[in-house]
Amino acid sequence: MKYTTVFGEEIETSCIGCTVANNKQFMKGRIYRTKLWNLAQDFEIAYPGMIILSPLRHVSNYIDLTLDEQQELNMLLSHCKKAIINIFNCERVAYAFYEKPDGHIHFIVIPLHNLIDIKDKYSVLGELMTKAEMLRNNKENMVRVVDAISKLKNYFNNL
């Protein structure tokens, strides 16, 4: 399957989660990497501060995560919220999680910093997906995305 990232990179892969986690492509979007997890800007939706957490190994079902992966995930989710509060001066975040059959699970942290109008706080991810092209094609927004990645990298590298 072919994917186009927020930075216009063309990626051909059967599992985008594995490709992003392996950091062979989409290097601009990488924020932080631990022993078990990769944190990156969402590769499809150019929303500043939208972080995707992916396990480094291919896991398609939450119950297949090891105890170590679950514990590290909980710690990272907490750090993501602290980073977003610190960087964007917003107290609220939305969390999303999805499993795809034979795909890669992702945990997503979305800052609710009012850069775009979100009509339903319970469907933030769905609303952002409908605005993905508009967000990618907005130069001012892309500058904010790059700036957010830089600030998030700095935050996580100083833990």
Task: Spell out the key features of this protein.
single chain; 159 residues; alpha+beta; HIT family, subunit A; five-stranded antiparallel beta sheet; 5 helices; 7 strands; 38% helix; globular
Describe the protein's architecture and organization.
The protein has helices at 16-22, 67-88, 124-130, 132-136, 139-157, and strands at residues 2-4, 10-12, 30-33, 37-41, 51-55, 93-98, 106-111. It has 159 residues and is an alpha+beta fold. The protein has a single domain, classed as HIT-like (HIT family, subunit A, 2-Layer Sandwich), CATH 3.30.428. The N and C termini lie far apart (36 Å).
Outline the secondary-structure elements:
Layout: E1 2-4, E2 10-12, H1 16-22, E3 30-33, E4 37-41, E5 51-55, H2 67-88, E6 93-98, E7 106-111, H3 124-130, H4 132-136, H5 139-157
Antiparallel strand pairs: 1-2, 3-4, 4-5, 5-7, 6-7
Helix pairs in contact: 2-5
Return Rg in Å: 15 Å
Widest sheet: strand ordering = 3-4-5-7-6
Structural class: alpha+beta
Please tell me the total number of domains. 1
Q: How would you characterize the largest beta sheet?
A: 5 strands, antiparallel
- Helix content percent band: 25-40%
Count, helices: 5
N→C terminal distance: 36 Å
Summary?
The chain has helices at about 15-20, 65-90, 125-130, 130-135, 140-155; strands spanning about 1-5, 10, 30-35, 35-40, 50-55, 95-100, 105-110. With about 160 residues, the chain is an alpha+beta fold. It has a single domain (about 1-155), classed as 2-Layer Sandwich (HIT family, subunit A), CATH 3.30.428.10.
